[in-house]
Amino acid sequence: MGDIGIPELLIVLAIIIILFGPARLSGLGQSLGQSIRSFRNELRRSDEQPSATKEQQS
Question: Residue 3 phi/psi, 5° resolution?
Answer without folding.
Answer: -85, 130
